[in-house]
Specification:
The protein is mainly alpha-helical. The protein has helices spanning about 1-40, 55-80, 90-115, 115-120, 130-140, 150-175, and strands spanning about 85, 145. Helix 2 packs across helix 3.
């Protein structure tokens, strides 16, 4: 009983410390913006500073759901249309398609957490490697999936990335109600 109360108090203290840290960072950032505007002086009329709100919990949930749904539908439909893989049954493709977005999300989280500076160095282009890595890992991990044609496999991965980006952006815009850059 006493341990539960201590644990809750520790969690509350950590939460409060984290909130104080966030508030301090916001104030420091606003001070940096004011300092930059003061340094720019009259030329600051040509420079616009835009504050972007972080995504809400609803935005994140919609994004995960949209990614998963679009990936599932796209991979299954491309596998049916182009015979780029050989598989035992339809359920083999469904398992492959269901695993792909999960592995993509895990790889993206790892890259964002541990290799964030490389995202900045490459201006985010490193994220385009995620579907290629996930497809490669899953094709080797699942013995019931075999590639028939490597050219078609590359084409499917490229089409998958394009279609997924367009449809996920469209779904996000439907739920958000605002136009967003693809």
């Amino acid at each position: 009983m006493m341990n539960d109360e201590n644990k809750k108090n520790n969690e509350q203290e950590e939460f409060e410390k984290e909130q104080e840290k966030i508030e301090k960072e916001k104030k420091d950032f606003e001070a940096m913006i004011e300092e930059l505007q003061a340094k720019l002086g009259e030329s600051s009329q040509n420079v616009k500073i835009i504050k972007v709100e972080p995504p809400t919990k609803k935005d994140k949930i919609v994004s995960v759901f949209a990614n998963y749904l679009v990936a599932l539908i796209t991979i299954i439909s491309l596998s049916g249309y182009m015979k780029w893989i050989e598989y035992d049954s339809f359920w083999s493709v469904v398992i492959f398609a269901a695993s792909t977005p999960i592995l993509e999300m895990i790889i993206e989280l790892i890259i964002e957490k541990y290799f964030f500076k490389y995202i900045l160095y490459t201006f985010g282009l490193i994220i385009f490697l995620v579907p290629i890595i996930s497809f490669s890992v899953l094709i080797f991990a699942f013995p019931f999936i075999k590639i028939n044609d490597y050219f078609l496999a590359i084409l499917v991965i490229i089409l998958y990335m394009i279609v997924k980006k367009i449809l996920v952006s469209f779904i996000r815009n439907l739920f958000k109600g605002k136009k967003q850059v693809i």
